[in-house]
Specification:
This protein is α/β, with parallel strands linked by helices. The chain has helices at residues 41-44, 70-83, 96-107, 127-142, 144-153, 160-163, 165-175, 180-191, 197-202, 220-225, 243-246, 248-258; strands at 3-8, 11-18, 23-27, 49-53, 89-94, 112-118, 207-212, 233-237. The mean pLDDT is 97.
Length: 259
């Protein structure tokens, strides 16, 4: 991927823009960057215009402050979309990227052509999840490398932790490029994000939710409940939270079918 930068609020935002056709914007998750799409992007770019963006404090995009709210991240994404003169986009987000996608869909509804949530949820953090984030912030401040290594491995399904060693190492190395400020600011932003389940019920553009049955982060049964009585399509995979690495081929097929 060839990257370019724009400046938003004195902050450098890093992104790639390749291909022609319907524009699809891919947003990575927490402790990731646009490299996470390295298997999917080359396939999609054959038929679509694919934009991959590094979110605030991740990849080569700088930090904007000490709390990166999902709305602030969505505004940074909007700045890129505006810069590229895109009127309507299909937005796809993995985990935190899904939270940002939902914030974008709420802020700029007229720009959404379709929405894909990959291992993500429209629900706000539970009190338990908020407490976990506070613990994670303390841990990463205390021992940056150990905290990141452990949190990445824990995103894969248990069975894959022994078999996908190369993928886990790669994800850890990518995560270690995330600055401490970016990690803390994202955790603080996810902690205060609002519940956006209403968007799944009230919007009429095509929506897709992709879930891993053994996701250690998102409870599968609870995640399915949020789309009851909606027009959201559901695709389920057999593994954990890192579907783009645990179920590469299936994710590619699902994306293409939806698009």
């Amino acid at each position: 991927m060839t990257y370019q930068q724009i400046t938003y609020k004195n902050t450098s935002i890093n992104f790639s823009d390749e291909g022609k056709g319907t524009a699809i914007v891919l947003l990575h998750g927490f402790l990731e960057n646009s490299n996470m799409w390295q298997y999917l992007q080359p396939e999609l770019v054959k038929n679509y215009r694919v934009i991959c963006i590094d979110l605030l404090g991740h990849g080569k995009t700088e930090c904007l402050g000490y709390v990166h709210t999902m709305e602030e991240m969505a505004d940074a994404v909007h700045e890129v979309v505006k810069h590229l003169h895109l009127k309507r986009i299909v937005l796809a987000g993995h985990s935190m990227g899904g939270y940002v996608s939902l914030a974008f869909a709420e802020l700029y509804p007229e720009m959404i052509k379709g929405l894909i949530l990959l291992n993500s949820t429209s629900k706000e953090d539970s009190p338990e999840r908020k407490a976990n984030r506070n613990r994670a912030i303390r841990a990463v401040k205390k021992n940056y490398q150990a905290a990141i290594s452990m949190s990445i491995a824990n995103l894969f399904s248990e069975a894959n932790r022994d078999t996908l060693i190369t993928e886990i190492e790669w994800a850890k190395n990518e995560a270690l490029n995330t600055p401490l400020q970016g990690i803390v600011a994202a955790q603080e932003g996810m902690k205060v994000r609002k519940d956006r389940e209403v968007l799944l019920h009230t919007t009429d553009y095509p929506k897709l939710l992709i879930l891993g049955k053994k996701d250690p982060v998102l409870n599968f049964e609870e995640s399915v409940l949020q789309i009851e009585g909606t027009n959201v399509q559901l695709e389920t995979l057999e593994d954990g939270h890192m579907s783009h690495l645990e179920n590469k081929k299936e994710v590619e097929k699902i994306f293409k079918k939806f698009l």
